[in-house]
Write a structure and sequence with these properties.
333 residues, alpha+beta, Pseudouridine synthase, Structural Genomics Hypothetical 15.5 Kd Protein In mrcA-pckA Intergenic Region, Chain A, 9-stranded mixed beta sheet, 8 helices, 17 strands, globular
């Protein structure tokens, strides 16, 4: 079901500009201004921020600055960004699993298969369309309040800001690495121990639809611990320090522990020797990356209280784990 927002309401809740009021963190010292802003304000593209700086819509410490000017950290950025011409104006009654809700934020348990934000090929039927139906005032915020994303086929927790104040505060926490994000991942392979991957992630130099570990990428850090071993696979708890596109999937593939079921980075399914037909069917039939955002923790943007949420393991992943556990406990000849 689609619900169109009346034009009169659009004029009320969708101002022609979006307010920007933030401070450059010390960690960005030495960066170009546009690069620092892109890090600080991930909801906006770098090109859009460059245009706003060149047009004088954004000022730094009260003065216009060029995109290439270096920053020292601590500068105050104030101004507006003209709203993009293409704006999501259609809400859809798509069911949402809301684990927490107040005036400042929403915590959503996103199912696998749901795209987070409209893009080419996915103009509707997304999490944003569902959010606009649930809370139409989110149309006034960048990307309808989404502070971070999950891939279409990754399940689990997402936080959504419900006010500009909350959006600014949550983005600042994300950039300062104070938001804790823990995932469960089933990988192909048997690591000896947990560890960390500190390797930059950017667009693949040849296949621009993919990401890769590349020298020109953005800094990315992933930590992992072994939760359970099977015969040919492992269940890992993964913690993100940064949140680059496809980061966990790329980093795990980089250390030769690709996610089971990952259609882009996973390669061919790996089958334990002598696996039962049931186990083989489960492994080969799992057609999404076996990745679930299980735990999310942050400081509430208004009260400052430390809050934590957990999302139950979805049925498809729980079934896979049960079958891998049974296979590990009953070795087949």
């Amino acid at each position: 079901m689609q619900v169109s927002i009346p034009p009169g309401l659009l004029k009320t809740i969708m101002p022609p500009v979006e307010a920007i009021d933030c401070q450059i963190p010390a960690a960005c010292a030495g960066m170009r201004l546009d690069q620092a802003l892109a890090e600080l304000l991930p909801a906006y593209s770098r090109s859009r921020l460059q245009q706003a700086l060149k047009a004088g819509h954004l000022c730094v410490d009260g003065q216009p600055r060029r995109p290439r000017d270096p920053v020292q950290g601590g500068e105050h950025v104030l101004g507006t960004l003209p709203r993009e011409v293409e704006t999501i104006a259609v809400a859809q009654a798509i069911p949402l699993t809301i684990l927490y809700e107040d005036t400042e934020l929403l915590v959503i348990d996103k199912p696998a298969g749901l795209v987070a934000h409209p893009a080419a090929g996915n103009r509707d039927g997304t999490l944003v369309n569902a959010l606009l139906h649930h809370a139409p005032e989110l149309a006034t915020l960048p990307r309808a309040g989404l502070v971070h994303r999950l891939d279409k086929d990754t399940s689990g927790l997402l936080v959504v800001a419900r006010s500009l104040r909350a959006h600014t505060a949550l983005v600042a926490q994300l950039q300062a690495r104070r938001i804790e994000r823990y995932y469960l991942a089933v990988v192909n392979g048997l690591p000896v121990a947990g560890g960390s991957v500190d390797a930059p992630v950017g667009r693949h130099p040849v296949d621009r639809q993919r990401m890769a570990v590349t020298p020109g990428g953005k800094p990315a850090v992933t930590h992992y611990r072994i939760q359970q071993r099977f015969r040919g696979h492992s269940l890992l708890q993964v913690k993100l320090d940064t949140g680059r596109t496809h980061q966990i999937r790329v980093h795990m593939a980089h250390i030769r522990l690709p996610l089971l079921g990952d259609p882009v980075y996973g390669g061919r399914p790996r089958l334990p020797p002598g696996a039962s037909p049931r186990c083989i069917e489960a492994i080969q039939g799992f057609r999404r990356q076996a990745l679930h955002a299980e735990r999310l923790a942050l400081s509430h943007p208004l009260s400052g209280e430390w809050r934590e949420w957990r999302a139950p393991i979805p049925a498809d992943l729980a079934q896979l784990l049960a079958i891998l556990t049974d296979d590990a406990e009953h070795t087949h000849a």
